[in-house]
Amino acid sequence: MSAEYVRKYRAKLKREVMNAYGGKCIRCEVIDLRVLTLDHPNGDGKDDRLGTSGGWYTYLKLRREGYPKRVQVVCFNCHRIIEHERRGWNDYI
């Protein structure tokens, strides 16, 4: 398997997973796939990573499970803000 094949496969997989969860950040509605990521609003992301190394394996797991409702799409900036809010780190405002 070539590196180019793997890169294209991973991009296709990420696009598929993000689209299954709405395809845009739930806060700012950005649609740029390069900055979209998944957030576990209930703080159970560790459960999805158990038995995997995270990343692409998490995408595969979520697809295999039929895209369960326990995750949401956010951009990296909003994800950081959400984490600060969850932890009560609002000193920067």
Q: Key terms for this structure?
A:
93 residues, mainly alpha, 2 strands, 47% helix, 9% strand, globular
Word description of this protein:
The protein is mainly alpha-helical. Helix content is 47%, strand content 9%. The protein is built from 4 helices and 2 strands; from the N terminus they run H-E-H-H-E-H. The chain has helices spanning 3-20, 45-49, 56-64, 76-87; strands spanning 36-39, 72-75. It has a two-stranded antiparallel sheet with strand order 1-2. Helix 1 packs across helix 3 (56-64). The longest helix has 18 residues, at 3-20. The protein is globular and about 50 Å long. The termini are far apart. The model has no long low-confidence stretch (mean pLDDT 89).
Secondary structure layout plus pairing:
Blueprint: H1 3-20, E1 36-39, H2 45-49, H3 56-64, E2 72-75, H4 76-87
Antiparallel strand pairs: 1-2
Helix pairs in contact: 1-3
- Give the mean pLDDT: 89
Q: Helical segment tally?
A: 4
H/E series: HEHHEH
Beta-strand percentage range: 5-15%
Q: pLDDT under 50 segments (min length 5)?
A: none
Fraction of residues in H or I helices: 40-55%
Number of DSSP-assigned strands: 2
| Shape summary | globular
What is the compact description of this entry?
The protein has 93 residues and is mostly helical.
